[in-house]
Structures are given as C-alpha cells and as structure tokens.
Amino acid sequence: MLPSLLAMEATIQVTGLRKRFGSTVALDGMTFTVAPGKVTGFVGPNGAGKSTTMRAILGLDSVEAGQALVGGRPYRSLRHPLRQVGSLLDASALQPSRTGRNHLLWLAHSQGLGARRVDEVVEQVGLASAIRRRAGGYSLGMRQRLGIASALLGDPPVLVLDEPVNGMDPEGIRWMRGFLRSLAAEGRAVLVSSHLMSELQDTADHVVIVGRGKVIADVGVSELIESASGDRVTLRTSARTQAVTVLAGAGATVAVTGADTLTVTGLSGERVVALLGGSAVPFSEVSAHRASLEEAYMELTRDAVEYHAAEIQESAR
Amino acid sequence: MKEALRVEWTKLRTVAGTGWLLAAVVLLTVGLGVASSFAVNCSGVGCGQDPAKISLSGIAFGQVVVAVLAVSAVGGEYGTGMIRVTLAAIPRRSTVLVAKAAVVGALVLVAGSAAVLVSVLAGRFILRDNGFTEAHGHAVLSLADGPVLRAAVGSVLYLVLVGLLSLGVATAVRDAAAAIGIVLGLLYLFPIVAAVVSDPDWVERLQRISPMTAGLAVQATTGLDSLPIGPWAGLGVLSLWAAGALSGGGLLLRLRDA
Amino acid sequence: MTATTTPFRSGVQVGRDGFGQLLRAEWTKFRTVRGWVIGLVAAALVTVLIGLFGAAASNISCSGPDGGPCAGMTPPMGPGGVPVHDNFSFAHRSLTGDGSITARMTSLTAVSSSDGQNPVSGLQPWTKAGIIIKESTTPGSQYAALAVTGENGVRMQHNYTGDIAGTLFTRPSWLRLTRSGDTIAGHESADGANWHLVGTVTLPGLPSTVRAGMFAASPQHEVITESFAGASGRSYPTRATAEFDRISLQGGWPDDTWTGEDIGGGPGGDDIGFQESGDGVTVSGSGNIAPIVAGRGGLGTTVESGLVGAFAGLIAIIVVASTFMTSEYRRGLIRTSLSASPRRGRVLAAKAVVLWSVTFVTGLVAASVAVPLARAVQRDKGHFMFTVPTATELRVVIGTAALLAVAAVFSLAVGTVLRRSAGAVSVVIVVMVLPYILAIASVLPSGPSDWLLRVTPAAAFAVQQSLPEYAQVTAAYAPADGYFPLSPSAGFAVLCGYTALALGVATLALRRRDA
User: Fold this and answer.
1) How confident is the model over B226-235, as a mean pLDDT?
2) Which residue stretches of chain C have pLDDT < 70?
3) pLDDT the model gives residue C354
4) Is the model's pLDDT at A308 over the cut of 70?
5) B197 Rama sector, left if φ>0, alpha if ψ -120 to 50, beta otherwise
6) Alpha-helix runs per DSSP H in C8-161
7) Which pLDDT band holds residue A8 (cuts at 50, 70, 90)?
8) What is the mean pLDDT of chain B?
9) Cβ–Cβ under 8 Å, residues B144 and C293
10) Rounded to the nearest 5°, which phi and psi values hold at A122?
11) Are A34 and A191 in contact, with CB atoms under 8 Å apart?
C-alpha cells in the first residue's frame, strides 16, 4: 500500500466555494465537511448547487473562490483518484454500445487495476447477470448499480454519489440504503445528494442542507428532527376554555386550532396529561407531534427554494 | 401534416446552429465563387472557360454546410433521444420525415437562392474585369441569358437535393458523424476515382452516375457537347440519389424501433 | 475525526502507475466499441477496393491517329529502370578508348507543325542540340551530352535524369566532350579559346567502343487548356535544326564518315535528319532524350495509383477519430473519464497515442495490400509501372499510413474543441479532403490547386508522390498529374503543424472548460 493512501484521511472539506454561470450565482460560499464513518446527506431543492459542488469536489468544474479538498488534497492532485474517491454523478454517462463490463474494464485500467477487481465489484452490486450486455439497453436502476460499481472500483475511503437511488425500484432503494450504511460502517466517508429529504430519512446520519448556493443547515439527523418537533402536543377536548386556562397557567402557549382541538407548545405530552388530570379537565385525545425529516427540511428551506410553486403557476399562465 | 410541418419548423428554428449554418452556406458559396472569379483570367479569344461555372464554383463548398445542416436536423434527434418524443407526438413516421425534408429543403432553397444570386452578381463584375468580355467571345454574365439562368436555378436545386440526400442518409444511419462521412464520401468518391481511372468508358460511366459530377453538369453554359451527361439529366441523377436515400431512410425509420 | 471511527483501509492491491495505464484504459475504450473497430476495418477495405477498382478500370489507349490500345507498348528503360524518351537525330561515329569531340554550333532553330490556329514559335525551352557520347544506338542506353537548349543555355546532361547547367547563352557556342575511362567531361566556350568546365559525369561500365557525334531533338509543343471542366492537352510535334562546324576529333575514331540515324524510330521516309556541307554538319530532329513524366493521358502507372482510395479511408478514419472524443461529450462520459484521470492533458495525449497507433497500423496494412494488388492488376493488363527505388516505395506506403494516423489525431483535436461530431467531421473533411478533391479531380485550375495543396492540411498527400519533377522536362506537373507543390516531407510537416496547433488549442480548451 502506498504511504499516501495510509495517510489519506477519509474526509471531504469544502471551504467557501463560489461560482457563477453568467449572472446566476451557482455557489455562494459553500462550506461543509464530510466526516468518515457516516453517511452524509446533501440535500437541497433543484438548482441549489448540489451537483456543481460535487463537480467541484471532483475537479471537474473550476471555482472562482474557495477550495474543495479530499483527504486534505485537491482532487486534481490525486494520483489514483478512483482509489481515494469513488463517484457517481450521472448514471447515464455511458457509451451505449459498450458492454457494462467493458465500461468498468477501461475505468479499472485507468487506475492500474485488472479485470479481477471488475468482477468483484460487479458481484458486489448484483449486476453479474447483465454485465456482458450493451449498457445502452440497461434500465435506469441497472445503470445506477453500474455507476455504484464504478465508484467502488478503487475501493476508496471517500464516496461521492449524486442521487444514486434515482430511478430505482423499491427493492433497489432498500438495497441501496443498506449498502450505503455498510460502506459507512467500514469507516468510509459517504456523501449522498438528494432533492428529497425522505429518501435520506433512514440512510443518513448527518445532513447538509443547501439552498441558493450555500449551506442552510449542517446537522445530525436526530438533532434536526428533535429541533423541528419541539414540544408540540395536540389536544382534543370538549372543555376547551378550562383546558386553556390550566395549560396557560402552567406556562404553555396554547392555540385554538378547531372546535374541540388545541395545539399546545412548551409542555411535554406527559405533563399535559398530568396537568389536565390534576384539574379534572376532560379530554379525549393527547398526541405528541414528531416531525418528519421532510417537514424539518421544508421548514428550513422555505426561503431558499428557487422556484416556488406560485411562481411556476404565474409563469405558466 | 400541417402540424408536423410546424413542429419541424419550430424545432429547426429554435436550434442555435441553424441560423449560423444557413449564413455559412451563403458566405462560403459566395466566398469561393468570388475567389475563383478573381483567380481566373481570360487573356484572349476562346480561353475555354465557362464564366457561369466559375462564378458558381462555390457550390462545391456550400454543399458541405448544407449536408451538415440536414444531417444535424436528424442526427441531433438521435443523439439526444428526442426522436422518441417526436415519434410519440407524431406517430406516422413517414409524415415526420416528409415534414423534415420539406422544412430543410425550404431553408436550403432560401439560403441557396441568396448564395447563387450574390455569386452570379459578383461574378458578373469580377469576370468582366478579368477579361471575360464580348471581345474575347464571352457575353457578360446575366440571368436574362437562358443557359445562365438554368445554371443558377440548377445550382439552387442542386443544394436542395444534396440536403435531401443527406437527410435520407442520416435517417438511415442515425448517427451524425457517420452520416456526414457517408454523404461527403459519396459526393467525392466518383470525381476522384474518375480522375485516376484511365479507361475513357469508365470515366464517362462514373461521371454519369456521380451525384456531384452529374449534378453539377447543370452549371455548364459552354461546351455542352463535351459534358458526360446533359445538364437537366445530370440533376435528375442527383434527384434519383436523393430519392433513393430518402426512401431508404424512410423505410428504415418505419421498420426500426425508435 | 471521532474517536469511535476506525480509519478506512482499502484491501485492493495497488498496480502500476503512470501514463501506461492511461493508454491501456483508452485502448480498452477504443476496442470495446464495435462501431469504431468496424470503422477502421471499413477504412482499410475502401482504401484497397478503390485502389483495385482504379487499376481494374484503367485501360490505356494511345491517342494517336490510330487510337488503338497500346497495352504491351513499353517505352525504353534507362539506367536504373526509369522509363525514358530516347528519340533524336544522331550523326555518329565510333569512338574507341579515350578521346574527345569538339564542335561549334552556329545556329539552333525549330519549326512547329502546329495546326495554324495557334501559331507557336517552334523553339521549345528544352529543344536541344549538341554533341553526345552514347553507349550504343539502342534507345535507353547510357549517354552524356553537352547541348545548347532553346531557352536554358548550355546544359550537360547524362543518363536521362542528370542535368548540369552551363553558363553560355550566346551563339556560336563551342562544345567539347572528353572521355577518359568511365568519366566524361564537358566544356563550353564562346570563342574556342577560353574553355569552361560545365561538369564531369561518370557512366559506370561504359564499353571501350561507343558512338559519338552531333544530335538534335525537340520535344512536342504542349498546349494545355484548363477549365472548370478539367484540363485538356494538345501537343504538336516540333523539329529542331542545328548547324555545326569546326568539328575536331581527338583519340581513336576509326570511322571516316558520319552516319545519320534517327534513334528510337524517327519520321523515316525522305526526311533525312543529317546533311554535310564542307566542314559543316546540319542535324535536324524531333523527340526528346529525357525521362518520361507521369500524368494525365500518360502511358504508365505509378506506385501511388494503388493508393487513390486513401481519401475514402481517410473519411472513415476522420469519422472514427472525431467520435472517439465527441461521444464522450454526448452523454457526459467525459466527466467519468476526467474524474478517473484528473490530469486532462494526459487524457488527451493518451487518446492521441492510441488513435495514432491504431490508425497507423490500419493504414499500413491497407497501403501495403493496395499497392502490390493494384500493381499486379496493372501488370496483367500490360501497363508498365514507373519503378522507383524501394526506399521511395516504402516512403509512399508508410507515408500514407502516417498521413492517416496524423489526420486521426487532428480530427481528435478538432473534436475536442468543437465537442460536436457532425461539426468536427465536416470541418476536418473540408480542410483536408475537399482541397485534395478540388486539386486532384481538376475541379480548380492548377494555380489555385497548387495554393490549396500548400496551405491546407491536404498538403500531406504529397507523401504519396513517388516521381520527382524534372527541371529539364517541360510538363504540367499539376496535382492532377500526381505532382504536388510541396516536397513529401514539407507537405507532411504542414499537416503535422496544423495537428500540433489543434492539439494545443484542444488541450487549453479541455483544461479551461468545466467538464
């Protein structure tokens, strides 16, 4: 093993990336770090700068300011880049008339690897039966698997995957989730982009949420969910006025949301039950609200979404 | 059919390259024609040159751009997979091809007419200054002259037919690069082989079936007896090539999966 | 890094590093796309087939008054197997051993039997008359001659291709040839007193007894009319008359009189080309003593005639080479390629090396099959070949392969810059194949044709020219005749220059642009 590989840290450091396409600002000080041993979700609406950032990490796009380092070095200075960073940007970036196996073979050759390694990764992604067919005939799901195989060719400590579950069937998506988790469990740093937060719910340990070319939030998934949920309790009661008095007296904010429903913030569900029980206020239902990752994300990106539905309707008219 | 025509027109109109290519047809055709007109001198009686042909020699250049334009109109669809969208919108495939041919043909007709008009006009003045005068047995180039008018109209039609030929080949091979290679190979093959073959019977045979040599016979205004094929008959040969390519392409388009 | 995370270690063995693996990757890329392999095979096939067709459809007929076929009519071969003209009027005697001949030429005139519509001066630039020492009267035998020419002054010529310029342009002209062993020296003089050495030549193995004397020859007057329909040539015979006096012979001259003879078959009949009056001798004759020049309407076939299909092979190779790069852009594959090897210049270099190699091999196979096959067909038909030295033949074959290979790299570079296949293919065809067509198929007059073959990449087709131009033989030497304005190496250098330029721009573009 090369000394450089031993010394290689499984991290991605993105610092202050700026880039514009004409008058459009694509990256506006993008900064985040991807740690090893975790699946890091890279989330944001379309046009937020996810793909541009990933291309910048891979040395494909130039930036006007800032830098992206992989294991502490710029991508373009890497000797055997695929042994340090495996990437999947566009699963359809294939020569349709070449077989899947030959596609992997030339990539392997470019890293000084042989056909044996190709067969290994093909086995790993479960594409063995189709690998000798023309890649042009692959379904989108098969192309994603081929793309994952090419990312794994060099057995790299860092993986950069752009929407890898796009076009996969539910079975494939489940496989991909487990697969990404197992890759991270081996100590690799895994950066996975998506424009759907729900896709990442059971996969990512950490999320970097971006909008309009910069990071909006850079948090652990559990933390994010907790902060978004807050202490929100929905209460169904026939004695609305009494309940409001009791709960407000205990320091909660109470909002009337229906004829017999209240939303209570500032108190836990258990506390609400105890207070109402102590004051003999009748109630039929108490439910503590737990935010989904999607809601948390919507909350955060509301301002950052480039094209609001209303605007789209406007322009379609 | 009317919608198909509109579809193809919109598609071709909204691709950035089309305008540039049409401008290039005019510029290159006129450019080479003017350069040739400047290069040729007629110093005495009977200098054996055909002024109409000289001024229209840029067609040999312009046809390349026409071929690129026509090939791109088809190759672009196959390159991006848009052909499936097109065929989903207009399932009658022959209609799609006919509409494409009509639109490409019309565009080439317009650009070609402009190119030919300017070429003849430029040739009229340049060649007169270079000794192609009545004193040397050459009438000043004028479209009022029957054979010159025939050469001019024929040259425009020549360009249109080259465009249709290219469209047919591109539809058949579905790849822009291969199509342009085949079209230009087809145009150039016969003149070169005819130039090296020394059997006069073979030379004549090759020239009569060559899309370029036979097609360009329509430009001749002098020495019609020595032509391998009559002017209009020559253009007819090219029409046959174009018709063959279009129907071959159409047949394959209908038989194959999109 | 958190304490709980164990650093990741790859178990994959590290292989070799460097440019070699990049070459291997690009080679794998190339060979695994069937269309490209088929394209190369097609390139080789069309090159061979068109060459064969060109040979098979050649049927040379003599455009003389009979117009019959002249298959089997082989011209005399000079030393070294060069086909030659060896027709002249010769007033000769035997010369045994060493010796010299001196004569004064007082006048040189010529008449043309032109049809009167185009009145021409009979004297051609290379009408020549003077003294000659010749191995025998057999056409094609060795000789050395010192001649006064129509417009080129005194020249010393030998064995058809040798030509040394003298200094004398005035008449009368004193001429002297001196034999000593195998070497012959030629001297010129304006007054018979002050002699100037024009040159010394060696005729290896010259027999002891040779023929020597006065001669006259005048080549045909060629009128080539060029038009956009092609060039048509007409030629009119001319006849030169030279008057000599003050003839003096030194050494072993056993004969007492001059014998007049038309070498190589003259007009015959009453037209005697030799008269004596007092000490003066008048010789008049037609024809030429010179190598035969290949070209339109010529009798022989050249080595490169079997390679006429190379332009079609070139078109196929241009398509393959351009798409080798443009196909990467079509679907974004270039991103994969560049993330696998971020040093972009090296990716382009690896592609160029792979393309160069595969097209060179393809071209070499095609050319080395096409040349002998076409030659066999031509031989079968009884046509004679312009034989050239093996080195020249190798240069033509290898040069054609190199032309295709460099053109492939050129197409690759153009494809990198334009990123669009139709555009790249047509640009390369327009700058490389179109000028060749315009020049070879005599679409353009020879002036513009020459210019095109100097400044465009098509100049490289000069590597196919196997026969040299002879300054001492008047001919069109037009591209359509197989003569290029630039030398083979200069023409090839033009293509290489364009390729280097395109590669430079392509490297810059590849480096600067976002992939």
Assistant:
1) 84
2) 1-7, 11-17, 59-73, 113-121, 223-234, 265-272, 296-299, 442-443, 445
3) 97
4) no
5) beta
6) 19-31, 34-56
7) low
8) 85
9) no
10) -60, -45
11) yes
Q: Of A6-20, B231-245, C246-260, C263-277, where does mean pLDDT reach its minimum?
A: C263-277
pLDDT for position A157: 92
B43 touches chain C (CB under 8 A): no
Q: C179: closest CA among C122, C238, C254, C95?
A: C95
CB A184 within 8 A of CB A205: yes
Pick B176's closest partner by Cβ from C228, C421, C480: C421
Per-residue DSSP letters for C429-454? IIIIIHHHHHHHTT-S-HHHHHHHHH
- Nearest-by-Cβ selection for B193 from C50, C436, C443: C50
Portion of chain C with pLDDT greater than 90, in percent: 46
Nearest to C428 by CA among C310, C322, C313: C322
Measure the CA angle with vertex C497, ends C494 and C499; round to 5°: 110
Residue A63 contacts C where some CB pair is shorter than 8 Å: no
**Domains in chain B: boundaries:** 2-37+49-255
Residue C501 half-sphere exposure, CB side, CA atoms within 13 Å?
A: 7
Identify the residue among C381, C443, C449, C483 best suited for mutation to test binding to B, counting B beta carbons within 10 A and taking the highest: C443
pLDDT band at A313 (very low <50, low <70, confident <90, very high): very low
Q: Which residue has the tokens 């191995």?
A: C135
Chains in contact with A, counting 3 or more C-beta pairs less than 8 Å apart as contact = C
Strands A206-211 and A38-43: parallel
CB contact under 8 Å between B57 and C434, yes or no, is: no
Per-residue buried b or exposed e for C339-354, using 16+ beta carbons within 10 Å of the residue's own CB:
bbbbbbeebbbbbbbb
| Chain C neighbors of A155, CB-CB under 8 A | 10-12
**Residue pairs spanning A and C at CB distance below 8 A:** 145
pLDDT at C120: 57
pLDDT digits (tens, 9 = 90+) for B144-189: 788 888 999 999 999 999 999 999 999 999 888 899 999 999 998 8
Q: State pLDDT tens for residues C37-90.
A: 999 999 999 999 999 988 888 765 544 434 444 444 678 888 877 888 888 889
Interface of B with C in 75-94 (CB under 8 A): 75, 79
Mutate to test the interface with C, among A79, A99, A111, A182 (most CBs of C within 10 A): A111
Nearest C-alpha in C relative to B47: C225
Tell me what pLDDT residue A311 has: 46
CA-based angle A97:A175:A90, to the nearest 5? 40
Per-window interface: B 188-217 vs C, CB < 8 A: 188-189, 191-202, 206
**Three-class SS of C151-217:** CCCEEEEECCCEEEECCCCCCCEEEEEEEECCEEEEEEECCCCCCEEEEEEECCCCCCEEEEEEEEE
Q: What is the pLDDT of residues A64-76, one digit of tens each?
A: 999 999 988 999 8
- Residue B37 is predicted with a pLDDT of 81
Cβ contact C21–A79 (<8 Å): no
Q: How far apart, in whole angstroms, are the C-alpha atoms of residue C406 and residue C495?
A: 7
Tell me the whole-structure pTM to 2 decimals.
Answer: 0.85
Say yes or no: A73 contacts chain C, CB-CB below 8 A: no
Please identify among residues 222-281 of chain C the ones whose CB lies closer than 8 Å to any CB of chain B. 225-229, 232
Any idea what the Cα angle at residue C378 is, between residues C372 and C381, rounded to 5°?
145
Whether residues A113 and C15 touch (CB distance < 8 A) is answered with yes
Tokens representing C463 are: 């590597």
What is the layout of strands, in order, in the sheet containing A65-70?
A: A24-34, A12-21, A65-70, A73-74
Q: Mutate which of C429, C442, C451, C483 to disrupt the B interface (most B C-beta within 10 Å)?
A: C429
